[in-house]
Amino acid sequence: MSTAILEEEKVETVKAPEPIKRVSIIVSKGTLDGVYPGLIMANGARMEGIEATLFFTFFGMNAILKKKMDKLKVATVGNPAMGMPTLLGAIPGMSSFASHMMKKEMDKLDIPPVSEFLEMIEDAGGEIYACKAAFEMFHLKEEDLCPQVKEIITVGDFYEKSAGSQIIFT
């Protein structure tokens, strides 16, 4: 007499991933294409009800400097994403032309200038911080910063504020 042994299948319950509740975005590049991804991600997070912190360091500080924030350009030299030879990108005025064209396309999509974007993010509850090391390295003064900067903090402070966050480096 043969007996069939049935093995019970183990069914593992797969938990749905927990939704993201907090993001901390580090912006370290000071070009249009280096700053806007962080701004768009922070704004998108706030629109989804996700807490958002922006930390500007090194050349990303250009985005929070009153004199530079709305004058950011696209790097055309050594930028393979531009799809042009470096020599062509080095022609005087090419960076300004490329920046003008990019801003024109952004206007068509109703993407605001940096100053307005930072204001929107702050108004939506996002927090904006400047890196103390970069602030001191570039010999900046508090009056150089846009009013949306909540505080000038150390990297350690940033990590403390980012506890439990998804950290994104742009």
From TrEMBL:
Name under which the protein is recorded: DsrE/DsrF/DrsH-like family protein
InterPro entries, A to Z: DsrE2-like, DsrEFH-like
Taxon lineage: Bacteria, Pseudomonadati, Verrucomicrobiota, Opitutia, Puniceicoccales
Coiled-coil spans in chain: none
Top-rank lineage group of the source organism: Bacteria
UniProt organism field: Pelagicoccus enzymogenes
Pfam family, one: DrsE_2
SUPFAM superfamilies (alphabetical): DsrEFH-like
PANTHER family registered for this protein in UniProt: CONSERVED WITHIN P. AEROPHILUM, PEROXIREDOXIN FAMILY PROTEIN
